[in-house]
Structure prediction request, 289 residues.
Amino acid sequence: MLHVFRNKPKYATVRPEKANQDGVENGGSAGKGNDPQWTRCDNCSSLIYNKELHKNNYVCHHCGFYFRMSAVQRLQQLADENTFQPFEPLVSCNPLDFPGYPAKITQCQNATQLDDAILIGEAKIEGYGCVLGIIDFGFIGGSMGSVVGEQITRGFEYGIAKQLPVVIVSGGGGGARMQEGIFSLMQMAKTAQAVGRFKKAGLFYLSVLTHPTMGGIYASFASLGDIILAEPKALIGFAGPRIVAETTRQKLPPDFQTAEYALKHGMIDGIVIRSEMKATISKLLSYHL
Prediction:
């Protein structure tokens, strides 16, 4: 059991393991709809045969639109087959007695077949061992609650113990999870401190930003990588462009808070297309053995 303060209700509990690389169904945007064989592109409205979409790494071959991938789809794309060993699963409690929160957790668990918004464990990428964590937007917007923060912290601690690099693929537009209040906000400081301890140990942390990486996730561990990569046109930042424009009352550049804008202003180190992501990650891992 996990405890935040003495005599306070526990905020996360261990859940019996049920999901691994081969036993979880896809839960992303691609392939979902009335017809299980076809998916309509959100950008160009083209109908795409799902087998072709999968073969093309969930990128529309008509217009190049990037479909959102589930954590399991991303795992299957990046990790070597049968090498992923998940960490002990955790599930959120309801520390604030937030109305409807337990039902929301159950609904997302059923939809994604994940225990919470992160899938994390030890894996190999083209033969190179690492701790691999993937955030799933389909689980309450990929928001960071106590479980996500705890699992990421454990990931860095595991990396120190096993002398492994850490790769985290972020994609959470929900930021800190409001249903857990301060318990969620605490995770920003906790994960940032975990990254700091990991770097002091002289180990390599690669952060991969996908659409969207926003809020508390970007303001903590996601922006602290030794190397930060992003997918094309991913939305990256703390607050969304509309909120920034309304607050500052200024006209923003058309590409504001995109991966391309972040690269141009030195906030990330590179933009990598999805079909080349695994090879790029493995090359970086080989440089940091």
In short: Residues 12-28+68-287 form a domain with the 2-enoyl-CoA Hydratase; Chain A, domain 1 fold (CATH 3.90.226.10). The chain has one domain: 12-28+68-287. The radius of gyration is 18 Å.
